[in-house]
């Protein structure tokens, strides 16, 4: 989509190697400018093949100066993350990228713009857009692993296979109170990624020979660190320490072969989960807000 004065905005379903390199360079520049973490999943961006245009790039003066990426969660909602070169801000570049994203996804129910708490430019843009905070997450990093002395040997924790997809979807649906169909669609995509692995916890006596699925989590090995996501325990089995047991099991699994950083995200209002992760040795390293903006052109 040509712009005035030699500016160009392009939309992509996949990114070329040169485009990805330019995006990484822009991210590093913006990161240094405001001393931000600016977490991007580079491995996912390399492997993505979307049915629709989810990446939007803005060029000026023969270089990339703006970028927006949309993540489709299969519910009609899109998470949106973006950045603009510090020397090209206040020129309407982000608004142009947002307009294009809205045009490409006219059927979207809403957009959720992800912004790091310490980004002054991001907060100013949110105010200009009239965005409202939907929720926020702490990004936590494991500093000193502290193991518990309690362990229930009736709980089995093991890697999940593709055949477990429906079981995991049920666990996540019961754990988070969301539509099981949406989780199933997400899982179908996640299982295709070689850098992501699900684990499942089941409860049962060996003598009975029946195991009840009670929890699950996802482990990502990407961008030089491990991330723990989608930690869920079904309501009937909460309060028994199984969430803690699953966390310890996955940390020991990682530490058996790697000393990479281990991190996770947690809703800032989820006091029980924050307490659990803190007791395991995690500490907050950044906070990200998720802001709702209109999906309609404005």
UniProtKB/TrEMBL annotation:
Claim: Coiled coil is one of the keywords in the record: no
InterPro entries: Acyl_CoA_acyltransferase, GNAT_dom, YpeA/RimI_acetyltransf
Domain N-acetyltransferase: 13-152, 155-298
Chain ranges passing through the membrane: none
Signal peptide coordinates: none
Any one Pfam family match given in the protein's UniProt record, by short name: Acetyltransf_1
Annotated protein name in UniProt: GNAT family N-acetyltransferase
Organism: Ktedonosporobacter rubrisoli
